[in-house]
């Protein structure tokens, strides 16, 4: 194992290694990546302290829709979901707020709507129907389960 020091890179003195076996190279690379991760993790508090930087949120990506956010996405910013035609906002997942750590309180989400149809009259004598059906407006599977009829009492 031959170690020597390479030229400084952004103020860091890197250790370079040559004449290693493949497993030694992998171990050395893993060690170097761990060192680099530790260094990068330490930069954020340094930037906050020196430059007053704050951690903003990234704009959420939403399957079958998009995030509607105001200007900057700093802590406290709010976003709502706008779903594509044929989709609705998932209850509880339609609004989110940027937290101090740069992450959102909720993942915005759109889903395919389902309609529950139950009961009604079926003829001129006002005879009732106690059937219950679930309708999906999207060709899908999984909503074919039988639902018990409602009591006619």
Please explain how this structure is put together.
The structure is a single chain. The chain is α+β, with helices and mostly antiparallel strands and 153 residues long. 20% of the residues lie in helices and 24% in strands. It is elongated and about 95 Å long. The mean pLDDT is 79.
Summarize the structure.
Helices cover 20% and strands 24% of the residues.
| CA-CA gap between termini | 86 Å
Total DSSP helices: 1
The helical percent reads: 10-25%
Q: What's the rounded overall pLDDT mean?
A: 79
Taking pLDDT < 50 over at least 5 consecutive residues as the criterion, the unreliable ranges are: none
- What topology, given as strand order, has the largest sheet? 3-4-6
Which of globular, elongated, flat, extended, rod-shaped describes the shape? elongated
- Strand fraction: 15-25%
Question: Which structural category fits the helices and strands?
Answer: alpha+beta
Sheet with most strands:
3 strands, antiparallel
Number of strands: 9
Helix and strand element order: EEHEEEEEEE
Using only C-alpha atoms, the radius of gyration works out to 29 Å
How would you summarize the topology of this molecule?
Layout: E1 2-5, E2 15-18, H1 22-51, E3 65-69, E4 78-83, E5 88-89, E6 95-97, E7 110-111, E8 114-118, E9 132-136
Short key terms for the protein model shown above:
9 strands; two-stranded antiparallel sheet; 153 residues; alpha+beta; elongated; three-stranded antiparallel β-sheet
């Amino acid at each position: 194992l031959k170690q020597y020091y390479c030229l400084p890179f952004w103020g860091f003195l890197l250790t370079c290694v040559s004449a290693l076996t493949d497993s030694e190279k992998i171990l050395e690379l893993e060690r170097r990546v761990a060192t680099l991760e530790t260094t990068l993790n330490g930069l954020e508090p340094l930037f906050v302290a020196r430059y007053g930087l704050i951690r903003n949120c990234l704009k959420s990506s939403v399957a079958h829709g998009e995030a509607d956010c105001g200007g900057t996405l700093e802590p406290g910013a709010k976003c709502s979901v706008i779903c594509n035609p044929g989709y609705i906002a998932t209850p509880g997942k339609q609004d989110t707020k940027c937290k101090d750590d740069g992450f959102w309180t909720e993942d915005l989400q759109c889903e395919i709507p389902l309609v529950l149809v139950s009961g009604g009259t079926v003829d001129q004598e006002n005879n009732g129907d106690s059937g219950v059906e679930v309708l999906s407006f999207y060709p899908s599977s999984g909503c074919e389960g039988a639902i018990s009829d409602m009591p006619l009492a």
